[in-house]
Each structure stands twice: as structure tokens, then as C-alpha cells.
Design brief:
By secondary structure, this protein is an all-alpha fold. It has three helices and no strands.
Length: 120
Amino acid sequence: MIPFEHKDEPLLPLRHFYRRLFRGALLAGAVVAGSLAIGIAGYHWIARLAWVDALLDASMILAGMGPVSPLGSAGAKIFASAYALFSGVAFLTSVGLLLAPAVHRFLHHFHLEPDDEPER
């Protein structure tokens, strides 16, 4: 979780804001890496694809581009469908983690009283 300051608190100094951005990027990267690992494992063990092909299909689905390899079994098709839905949520979550600190800072700036603004 990324802690944010309350609207009554002063704007966070830039050094701390950049640290918050970096933490959000790390969390977003972890969500993407974990989602990719789930997809690779599923495509390898359920769809019986080679590791490289499983990586390709999982990456393409996670990026929203669609599958590459044809799927032969019903189980593989059900997994691909569930993984595609999961990937949409994972993508939106990672974008939210990346943008939340910047959007919060932008909105927090407009809620400050003129005498509350930090000196530059």
C-alpha cells in the first residue's frame, strides 16, 4: 500500500514524492511480473505449450494483443479465457499503481490553502 498525506497536511517534498513514484512503479512491476508468471505456468501446464511459447502467449494476452498459438483442449481454452479476463484487471491495477501518486499530488495541490504551500 502507498500511504498518502491527508488534505490538511502540506504537500510532500519532491524527494519524497519521487520515492513514492518509484514505490508505485515497483508495485506495478510486481503485479505485471506475477500476472505473467501465472500466465506462463498456465499455458505451459494446461495448454501444453513450450516455455517460450507460453511466455509469448502470456505476454500477448497481458498486453491486450490476443493469443498467438492455437489451443487444442477445452481446458486450455477455459484457462485462456479466464487469464484474459484476469489480465484486464491486472493491467488496470498496474496503471492505477503507476498513476495514483501523480494524480494524488495534482489534486492535493489544489486543495491547499495559499498560505499552506511550501516555499520553493
